[in-house]
Design a protein that fits this description.
By secondary structure, this protein is an alpha/beta fold. It has one domain. The protein contains 9 helices and 8 strands. Strands 2, 3, 4, 5, 6 and 7 form a 6-stranded mixed sheet that branches. A two-stranded parallel ribbon has the order 1-8. β6, α5 and β7 form a beta-alpha-beta unit.
Length: 213
């Protein structure tokens, strides 16, 4: 991939990371028998309820995540460069991929897995006293079918993501400017931020480099 290009999955990863999620990109779902893959999760993340970055003046995270204050919030994110979409593996109950993901990450008790999977297939979300699980769509435009069919599923668009990243870098410049451990995408985002004259210019620069996968 071109060194100046930004993978859509990596940009989503950085959005979730800056919002306090512990994240895994391309989480593979394996079959019980044979070779190959059943599917993969573009970004799998968990955010804990008492998350706060900085002791005295905690950074303010984005609205889609701050409403949950009592339970771990687990997202199964489908990332698209263009329009938001949920692929078949996450909408076909007969595939049982949701059960495989829940088993692999161990976030619900085995006795709850079928109930949780059914809820995720039906509405895109599952809630219990211990956890909030949700599908999440990332993309360039909202999907009306997803909005109508899965009302609980957040659809987060690239302009919202780039605006959040720009504002986070701007508000906490001193804290974020030292980042030798960041990956290539993180360092490129910072360079684009430093050269951008506005949040709009930053968003344009990032989205012009955005590629699928």
């Amino acid at each position: 991939m071109d060194a100046t290009a930004i993978s859509s999955e990596q940009l989503a990863y950085w959005y979730f990371r800056l919002n306090g999620f512990m994240t895994t990109v391309n989480f593979v779902v394996h079959p019980e028998e044979g070779e190959g893959q059943r599917t993969d999760v573009d970004v799998l993340g968990v955010r804990f309820p008492h998350r706060a970055e900085l002791l005295n003046d905690p950074m303010v995270d984005d609205v889609p995540f701050t409403h949950e204050k009592n339970r771990p919030y687990v997202v199964i994110a489908e990332v698209k460069r263009d329009g938001c979409k949920l692929n078949g593996p996450w909408t076909r109950p007969g595939d049982r991929n949701m059960q495989r993901v829940l088993t692999a990450i161990g976030v619900v008790h085995p006795e709850e897995q079928e109930t949780a999977a059914e809820a995720l297939y039906a509405s895109g979300a599952f809630q219990s006293e211990k956890v909030l699980l949700s599908l999440c769509c990332i993309g360039g435009t909202e999907n009306r079918v997803v909005r109508r069919t899965f009302k609980s599923v957040p659809q987060i668009l690239w302009p919202q993501i780039t605006a959040f990243i720009f504002q986070r870098f701007h508000a906490y410049f001193c804290q974020k400017r030292s980042h030798p451990q960041w990956d290539e995408t993180g360092r490129l985002l910072w360079k684009l931020f430093e050269s951008a004259e506005s949040v709009e210019a930053f968003g344009t620069a990032v989205q012009s480099r955005l590629v699928s996968g």
